[in-house]
From TrEMBL:
Organism per entry: Nocardioides caeni
Family: Belongs to the sigma-70 factor family. ECF subfamily.
Keywords: DNA-binding, Sigma factor, Transcription, Transcription regulation
Domain RNA polymerase sigma factor 70 region 4 type: residue ranges: 136-172
Protein origin, superkingdom: Bacteria
GO MF: DNA binding; sigma factor activity
Segments traversing the membrane: none
Record domain RNA polymerase sigma-70 region: where: 26-91
Biological process terms in GO annotation: DNA-templated transcription initiation
InterPro entries recorded: RNA_pol_sigma-70-like, RNA_pol_sigma-70_dom, RNA_pol_sigma70_r2, RNA_pol_sigma70_r4_t2, RNA_pol_sigma_r2, RNA_pol_sigma_r3/r4-like, WH-like_DNA-bd_sf
Listed PANTHER family: RNA POLYMERASE ECF-TYPE SIGMA FACTO, RNA POLYMERASE SIGMA FACTOR HI_1459-RELATED
Protein name, per record: Sigma-70 family RNA polymerase sigma factor
Length: 181
């Protein structure tokens, strides 16, 4: 389905067309799974985030006003869902670690890819606790690879502000992502 067709379908769904919403959810499910999979290590976790994101799309489609491409809006919803799933999994793991010993091996010591994803998600959590306005632009640019203009439209923020936030976010997370021996 082309971006224009998705935009049209999304606007119909936002206007209350139930059939359009069902078609839209079916059409975007693979894309949402890919977005979540880029951020979460295990396919089961990505699938959980995908289902949460699709539920959010279904319940919040009325907020899509067509100011940006639907796919841009979808990237933000899916990225936020993946980050939320990560927070939930992290909390569950911490609760389990208290109840059960020994703790499973840290994926950061067993896989470079796994470690970089976990480190990035953890850095985003830290950044979000002090500067939440910096997280979403950084994720949309550096993880989801949206261009600056799309991010500005999606966030309804001036382009210069978006670029500045991404710059400051990169500067803040860089020390947290450095490899230490």
């Amino acid at each position: 389905m082309t971006p224009d067709e998705l935009d049209s379908l999304a606007l119909r769904a936002a206007a209350g067309d139930r059939e359009a919403l069902e078609d839209l959810l079916a059409a975007v499910q693979p894309r949402v799974r890919r977005i979540c999979g880029r951020m979460l290590l295990f396919p089961e976790d990505a699938e959980e985030a995908t289902q949460d994101a699709l539920l959010l799309v279904a319940t919040r489609i009325g907020t899509f006003a067509g100011r940006s491409r639907f796919t841009t809006w979808l990237h933000a919803v899916a990225s936020n869902s993946a980050r939320s799933t990560y927070r939930t999994l992290k909390r569950r793991a911490a609760e389990r670690a208290v109840d059960e010993l020994p703790v499973a091996a840290d994926p950061r010591t067993t896989s470079v890819i796994a470690g970089s994803r976990l480190d990035l998600l953890e850095a985003l959590e830290v950044l979000g606790s002090t500067h939440p306005e910096l997280v979403e632009p950084l994720v949309l640019r550096d993880v989801q690879e949206l261009d600056y203009n799309e991010i500005a439209r999606l966030l309804d923020t001036p382009l210069g502000t978006v670029k500045a936030r991404i710059h400051h976010a990169r500067k803040a997370v860089r020390p947290m992502l450095q490899v230490h021996d």
